[in-house]
Amino acid sequence: MLVSSDNFLQMFFGWEGVGLASYLLISFWYSRYLANKAAIKAMLMNRIGDLSLLVAISIIFMVFGSLKYNVVFNICYYFLNLDIVIMAYKFNLFFILGLFLFGGAVGKSAQLGLHTWLPDAMEGPTPVSALIHAATMVTAGVFLVIRCSYLFEQNQNILILIGIIGGLTCLFAAIIGSFQFDIKKIVAYSTCSQLGYMFFSSGMSNYSLSLFHLFNHAFFKALLFLSMGSIIHALSDDKILERWVV
Description:
It contains twelve helices and two strands; from the N terminus they run αααββααααααααα. It is mainly alpha-helical.
């Protein structure tokens, strides 16, 4: 539903669907306190991004009078000089629109600022994490940016912002992951870092490369999760690297 939709409303239902699937995955072992806590944290932080996306969709409907992709993308060029007044300050329509769309992507794809839910989400079963958190759930934000590239290209400032956030996430998530002892959290921070690559590429207007890495990441990260799950199972469900060395 998320990928095949031809309008923003249907896409939003698919967007919420992957969020629900993630919540149910993280809280699979509902008797565990940490699993329940992580699921609630993921749900609340994703609601911040979802609210941002909902505001963007509302603006699109008010300005363009339609939520269909082909209608909005074909007439967006006629609104290049339209400004939105917020608290006596004028902002370009496409900057505000891009900001709220990107806000939704930041929440869903665990970028810097709203990234802390993803490492905690590793409380779910490892094999299912390979499917949900490597191939579908967290890449939804990248897909949104690529799908709405027509709107982002109308304002260079928002592209610069996407590139900066993506680059910082790529760097900091990789550094944080290097100092983790829980192998599942290492892979989670690796996912944040790889998503940062995709956003950085999108910020450089290289959407084809971003989409290529999205597909590439889905395969190699899913295999990495499955391999990690096999290792954890072989070591009697021990996830801590420090104890492996000892």
